[in-house]
Amino acid sequence: MNKVFWLVLVLIIIFSVWAFFASRDGIVDVVENVAVEMEKLAAEDVYGGTAPEETLRMFAEALEAEDVELAAKYFLLEDDGTRGDWQDGLEQARSEGRLGEIVELIRRARPNVEDSTYLGDFKFIVLSEDGLVEYTIDMELNQQTGVWKIESL
Amino acid sequence: MKYKLMRSFDFGRLRRPSLKMTARMFLLGVLFLMPAAGLAYETSTHQHLTEAAVDFFNNQGEQNITIDLEELLIQGSVEEDSSFRFLNHFFDPIYNRGLEIASFSGASAKQWAQDEGAQLSFGHKPFFNKITSFISSTFSSDLDDELNFTWQAALRRYKDGDEEGAMLALGHVLHLFQDISVPAHTRNDSHFYSSPYENFSKYKQAREWPVNDLVRLSSLDDYFDGLAEYSNSNFYSRDTIGLGKYSLPETDYFELKDGYYYGVKNDEFGNYYLFRKSGGNMVFANRNNVSIDTPVVLQGYWDRLSDKAVIYGAGIIDLFFKEVEGALPVIPSVSEGSYKDSSAAATPQNDEEEENNRADVVENVLALINRANKILDGMEKDPSALPQDDTEGVGGVSLEVDDDSDNYNANNSPAGTFIPIIPAGDSVILNDSEESLEDPSLLAQDDLVVFITEFLFDAEGADTGKEFIELYNPNDQEVDLYGWSIQTTGGKKNFEEGNVIGPKSFFLIWLGASSNADMEWKSGSLKNSMDTIYLVRNTEVIDSDGDPDIVDMATYNKDDFIGFEPGYSLERIVSSDGTVADEFKIQTQPSPGALGNVGTLLASVDPGSESGMTEQPLFQWLNFYRDPNNSQRSIVDIKLNNPAFSADWSEAWKVLIFYGDCQPANQDFISTSDDWTPATDGLLTTTYPIYVGNTKRQSLILPTAPDGYGSSGGIKNQAYNYSLIEDGIVRFYIEDDVEYLTMAVYDFYQSGGGQQSFRLKVIDSEKYYWQEDAPNYQPPMLTGDLSFNFDKQNSLLVIDWPDASDADSRDQLLVYDVKINGEVVELAASGYQINVSPGDTVAVEARAKDEFSNYSNALAGEWSYPEPELVINQDQADGWSGNIGNKNPNCSSCPGTASLQSVTLPQTAEIDFVNLKIWQSAGGWPANLRLSIYDDNGSNYPDFNNLVTTTTLSLRLDSDPDDVTNFTFGNSVTLGKNRKYWLALDVESYSNHKAFYQSKIQNAIYGAENVYNNGMAGMGHSGECFSGGYCTIHVPYPSASADWWMRMGLTQ
Q1: Residue B465 Ramachandran class (φ > 0 left, ψ -120 to 50 alpha, else beta)
Q2: What is the mean pLDDT of residues A117-143?
Q3: Given the DSSP bridges, would you call strands B1046-1050 and B869-874 parallel, antiparallel or unpaired?
Q4: In degrees rounded to 5, what are phi and psi of residue B262?
């Protein structure tokens, strides 16, 4: 009886120790792998200029050429790793003939330097005739590649 | 005890856009968030908030936390973000939950802080949680030390005598409080997109914390509940603005500010902005952008939330010591031995007392070394994981202790503990703001100035034995340092007998051993984050920055030196004339004791030279008078010299400081840290134009070159819009009500390390008195002739004239009154265009007007439309067509609705224009109007496959029913005899897509009788129809006899 008890106890201890170490990195590994993948995506995102104005110009040129796929690449990555939402929106705008209208708005955009919340944030505004802010274009710097991306417009 | 560095990931490298990938994890069915999501403040912000909480706690005067224990608190508060523990840093007080998203549910911060089992088992698969928790708590105390940083662990360790372990755990708990002061963490917002508030706050570390009462609550839960409710109920996070699940915060009212509408809330500190409406969305027309992502909003957030984090943090520290029954063995009160106090135990007054205290000092150093070595062992000798003082102060320290040194780091026991009450500054400060190198030969030793000119506080790798402090004697006589001391907030070293600096020579203090040193301070170390170095004229511990015995001092904060890397030193800024500034700059190639940049400059200076301060007139003239167009403010016009200012001044920027009803202050330097503004009363606020809009500042920054302003950052962003400086006149506005103004001019001096500074050059003490009336400015000049250019294609007449000029007003502000056929319009620039039709005659007068309503002479001229040959002249109308230009909202590819008209000419005719009466009865969006002519398809309908000609008028907006719209074809076309043609009028596009649904454009129709030969009006599409019945054509419409109002013909 004593032998069995000790044998069971030893087995429990061995199992517990194994269980402890075997289960250690489940979360950590998953999240770290994801982080590496995301870093890779960000590092590959080279669409844009080194100044916010340059990115806007490139974006407008893509719209003028009705190259919606290229234009969408100037946006920040969406949550799902694509710019799907923006590309869909631009496709819709193209079908409605509104790309030229967007280009015109972008050409009216002026920097609003005092509205930056931190280095790597930059905003443009489009004013209406009565002086109200009709649109705000929010830009953000991709810290890894050094290019400015459109966050929203 | 061993405190291993927890497995960590370099979160700092993860920035957006990779942050945006977090949701992807859930979409992919992965359980957990990416590392950066959920991180709240930057680690540097946590450090700063912890330091502030400790300072706040210490300032209550009941107990004090020593520097080395504070370092452990900071270490704990920084490390809490490692190993994905941040997943448990959320606490939503409304629903009493942690982070919940998709299938993931984290522990609430409130639970996490007190649940030892949860912390010990965190990171394990759920199945094993109970087992691993049991094992780790039962069999492995080491594991407990590594993973368990709960409130209970902190209390237990402290009661067991393990102060370091307790502080480390308490630091982790402080971190949780700092996180739940972030609204995203109390509103279940995982901030996939990163948090605007957190991004903003990482540049807000140098805030001066206001004095408030300590918040004393009875339990940790009360602290969590109180802070979380405040954060949740008074602020928004980026993705929870207006969410129905949170009823608060509520907007008190809305305010229009700088073109934006802001939601405003009021609390005990005043009003603050909750959010703003940032306009529409260009791509998604049905979306509005509502945001907190602006400094206007975030500053109010930070002011309130950071204060709460500090106050609550101090309260938690207070609660901690109350729960361990006030036992704080190594914390003397301020009055008993702090840095403020000069009692014998704490601050040796003389050699004898120092000798008496030596044993305590040695003991303290040994205790420090033993403790630090143990920590080092436990951290696998990774110095980066240690508080910097510990790393530096231990690694290279031998057991030798200098006879004359008091090591303030050695405060591990009651004796010899010093709590410096010295505010940490954010820049290096010289005790005198400027010390020009006067001839010192007549000065006594006590009056001689010695500068701290360079120091290295953070070396590559371990700091031990690599740090130094360099002094420089700018005088023409030697300075005997014996009896002086060099001090930091963590220690002191007395100069030794024989320590003398020769005239214009360096003195090198090495923190460690070095054969090049003039004096070794073997136990000394400089903190890697921030500290103050004092050169003191005696050996007493200084009690404040205002101590008159401080010869020089340097306060540094690494965060202020952008681009700083370990191994760089900080070097004093010295101008070409030898003026020593307050500030230091980064020196990438340290030159201890050598003639570096500073030394070269200092050595070359003639100590008798003047600093450049003069009293002289600055400008040709200055006018200060009421704005005739705005009685609430005054205009200041300054006519600059040519060249502006003095030629020997440096080229870059000037800062003009204006004073009201007083003389200018004689402050030598102003810098970014004080917003380029002297610390004095009487300053006037100027409003002046910058790159975009205007700015209001107490320092007018004037560029001296066209590229001196812009949006690329630094000074340029705040600089006067150079393009608006005209005829040498700088104009700005003042709202203060004063009788006269005086001024001082500062010269650009230095930029670097995140700072820009200016140096006082000239004080102008002349009083420029305010005048009720504007000066007698000259009227503008307008010369030349009017020109008329007819754009036949677009039926436009372009009228132009030369720009006017004004000798004493800004030309860009000139406007033009233009009278066209008796109607006057005011234009901001020369040039005007109007639509014209055959038969029109246009009489024009134009004159310029300055802002004081002085008029120039007028230019006059007249133009007539070339007389056309009309083929159709149907000038009767009694109604309107249906609306054209509309589209089926459900058919984006459908063509717009057209107005149609058939014509059959009795003889062949050549035409190149058509006149119609068109107006827009609703909708204010300009349209591109198109008129096309098609053949008939043989069935009394247009043949859209056979286009004869077409033309488009761009962006027309006709609100007057009497307007005649002229369509001109680029090339004339010939319409055959007795052949039916169809004219189709439609909208090619609008300036806004909404107009397709909302505009009502119609053309005039005469329905009484059939005027044209077999002509019929109708409505329908203007091209191929893609959508079922909607795109049909209705002919005739409205009746068989209807005809357009129309003139058709050929221009001569």
Answers
A1: left
A2: 85
A3: antiparallel
A4: -115, 145
- Element holding B367 (H helix, E strand): helix B351-378
Q: Please give the angle made by the CA atoms of B877, B882 and B887, to the nearest 5 degrees.
A: 150
Rounded-to-integer distance, Cα B21 and Cα A34, Å:
9
Taking phi over 0 as left and psi of -120 to 50 as alpha, with beta for the rest, B354 belongs to alpha
pLDDT digits (tens, 9 = 90+) for B409-462: 322 222 222 222 222 222 222 223 233 333 334 456 667 888 898 999 988 888
- Does B941 contact A at CB distance below 8 Å? no
Given this model, what pLDDT does residue B214 score? 75
- Name every chain B residue with its beta carbon within 8 A of the beta carbon of A119: 203
Integer Cα distance of A78 and A49 in angstroms:
19
Provide the pLDDT for residue B1025. 60
The question of ipTM being above 0.90 is answered as no
Q: Contact B296/B275 with Cβ under 8 angstroms?
A: no
Smallest Cβ–Cβ distance between A93 and the set B199, B283, B992 belongs to B283
CB atoms within 10 A of CB B705: 10
* Nearest residue of A to residue B292, measured between CA atoms: A117
Amino acid at B632: Q
Distance CA B600, CA B42 (A): 40
Cα B852–Cα B858–Cα B859 angle in degrees, nearest 5: 140
Best of B7, B15, B19, B20 to disrupt the A interface by mutation (most A CBs within 10 Å)? B20
CB contact under 8 A, B892 and A131: no
Residue with tokens 């006519």: B639
How close does chain B come to A71, measured CA to CA in Å?
A: 12
Cβ separation A114–B295 shorter than 8 A: yes
Spatial separation of the C-alpha atoms in residues B569 and B561, rounded to whole Å: 11
Please give the mean pLDDT across all residues of chain B: 75
- Distance CA(B695)–CA(B686), nearest Å, equals 8
User: Residues near B141 by Cβ (< 8 Å), separated by ≥ 6?
Assistant: none
Coil, strand, or helix at residue B478? coil
Among B283, B294, B893, whose Cβ lies nearest the Cβ of A89?
B283
Q: Whole-angstrom Cα distance, residue B146 to residue B616?
A: 69
Contact check, Cβ <8 Å, A79/B135: no
Task: Please give, one letter per residue, the 3-state secondary structure of B681-730.
Answer: CCECCEEEECCCCEEEECCEEEECCHHHCCCCCHHHHHECCHHHCECCEE
Q: Hey, is the C-beta of B14 within 8 angstroms of any chain A C-beta? A: yes
Please classify residue B373 by burial: count the beta carbons closer than 10 Å to its beta carbon, then call 0-12 exposed, 13-18 middle and 19+ buried. middle
Q: Best residue in A38, A53, A90, A132 to probe B by mutation, most B CBs within 10 Å?
A: A38
For B5-18, the pLDDT digits (tens) are 232 323 232 233 33
State the pLDDT confidence band at B892, using cuts at 50, 70 and 90: low
Q: Is residue B136 classed as helix, strand or coil in its secondary structure?
A: helix
> DSSP string of B165-207?
HHHHHHHHHHHHHHHHTSHHHHTT---TT--HHHHHHTT-TTP
Mark out the alpha helices in B98-182 (DSSP H runs): 109-112, 116-121, 129-139, 141-147, 151-159, 163-180
Closest CA in chain A for residue B33: A31
* Cross-chain CB nearest to A136 (options B13, B25, B278): B278
Q: What is the dihedral of CA B229, B231, B233, B236, to 10 degrees?
A: -150
Tens digits of residue pLDDT in B710-767: 887 778 888 998 888 877 788 999 999 999 999 988 888 777 666 778 888 788 878 8
To the nearest whole Å, the CA of A5 is away from the closest chain B CA by: 19
Q: Are B754 and B562 in contact (CB under 8 A)?
A: yes
Task: Give B820's contacts (C-beta < 8 A, 6+ positions apart).
Answer: B799, B832, B834, B842, B843, B844
DSSP code of B1035?
S
